[in-house]
Amino acid sequence: MEEEVLKKYIEAGRIARIVLEEAAKRVDVGVKLVDICEYAEKRIVELGGQPAFPCNISVNEVAAHYTPRVGDESTVPEGAVVKLDIGVHVDGYIADTATTVVLDPAYEKLAEAVREALEKALEKVRKGVAFYTISKTIESVIRSYGYKPIVNLGGHSLDRYVVHAGESIPNAADPLLKGSFKAGKVYAIEPFATTGVGYVEEGDIVTIYALHQTKLRRRLTPFEKKMLAYIASKFRTLPFTERWLVKDLGDVDKIRVALARLAKMGFLIQYPILVEKSRGIVAQFEHTIVVLEDNVIVTTAKE
Ligand code: MN
Ligand code: MN
User: Fold this and answer.
1) Domain over 3-202+278-298 is classified CATH 1.10.1200.10
2) Is the dihedral of CA 229, 234, 240, 246 positive or negative?
């Protein structure tokens, strides 16, 4: 990996680590979810990065992909288990990191299981190691605590301006799983554990979108054209949310109609919220790593 590129990955990681730590401190009963997310997204820019995706704040049985929409007044409930997942990019080079804040001591052990799963997995990663080894490590640590890994969520490769770059590292051992860590590549490792059955399904709420393609032959309204051009220039293929559109495009009702139409026509991808199937409580931790010839840098960890 070129020195300049590595520097940008490390800088994105440094910013993501600081912002995640600061945002996690703000999670408390009664605090508005949107305030935590807007704080995180603002701090990313203040520290010299750009959000690589909207701040995800997923409560209890919601595992991922929830970011507050415009006018969302919801707050952190009593005894909540809150996953904060932050993405930062510097010139397109991404850091993806997450933590869990537990407000009910009964779920401390659940969080501990995931923290240890991530730690043990990271100890094993180096060039040439099979993804299977990491999946197996994550699964066995989580099971040793008496919880279930979420089998249909997992780590992933990252690329410039691409959060999910094709390869996945599931949270449970699958003997058919192929693939191994390559030098010069970047990955996120993200174990999820639950008190439930260990499977997420899509909920009915969509709060996050990304551009899919711009070249479809469809008749668009002038507003839809303008919004599509804005998304393409501002976010490229990175995920975004309606909170980020209202600042420049105004009227949220108009934006919502356009988002739904553009998604239906195939211009945009929707990322529905992911909810644990049996409504079990979910915990998650995540770090981004750069795999080099003879070492591994965890960009989002403290040195
Ligand atoms: Mn993440
Ligand atoms: Mn990730």
Assistant:
1) no
2) negative
